[in-house]
Amino acid sequence: DRCVITSLELAVPATCGALTLDRLPQVQIVELGGLELLLPLTHSEDHDVQRLSAHALANLSVNAENQILMADKGGIEMLVHLLGSTNEAVQRQASKAIANMAVNRSNKEKINECGGLDPLISLAGSKSDSVAVEAIAALANLAVNDLNEAEIARLGGLAPILDCAQSSNPDLSCQAARALRNLSCNQSNKEEILKLDGARILQKMTTSKHQRTAKQAARALVNLNVTDG
């Protein structure tokens, strides 16, 4: 019965998602075979199953060892697939999971190789702030890699990030500032950011009442060799 199957599919990620809020269960769930249960559910046609699975994987991927295990078991490919969902909740959770996975150095390259940059750039321009925040957070983490830094700009990632940098949403503008800091080391990127009026945008951000945003913007300006005065 399809209803029974869907109920079971929902129960697994929902339970794992609740348990993974604590650090110890994050390890135990994986040791007990949790990834083998969760990862296939990302292919479900049910948006709720996809969302709950991605949410559980996002929580599990906070753990450094799990980031490696998830990548080894094909988790990156499955999460990149979910980025293409038409459901905003699924997009948000998948982006969040990839942001966590991208903390790992090897995973930064794998995410690029699996085609993760393009959909993340698209989601950075989402009308949903909550989706854009997670997508830009992922791009910021991925940009701490020379190849990714150049590729994100080549694929058109700078413009939507600069747009988000001007958002009144403090979480969104903060992640955009962090991304711009990480994307402003490459010489070609520096020139493109300046061409897109990035210096003015970043200088305005240095006056933000949100300290983290102001600091990230100031560091980006240093990378661009622009004073914030």
UniProtKB/TrEMBL annotation:
Which terms under GO biological process does the entry name? nucleus-vacuole junction assembly
Q: Which InterPro entries match?
A: ARM-like, ARM-type_fold, Armadillo, Vac8
UniProt keyword Membrane present: yes
Query: What keywords is this UniProt entry annotated with?
Result: Lipoprotein, Membrane, Repeat, Vacuole
How does the protein associate with the membrane? Lipid-anchor
Which GO terms fall under molecular function for this chain's record?
protein-membrane adaptor activity
Give the CC-aspect GO terms: vacuolar membrane
Keyword Isomerase on entry = no
What family is reported?
Belongs to the beta-catenin family.
The entry's protein name is Vacuolar protein 8
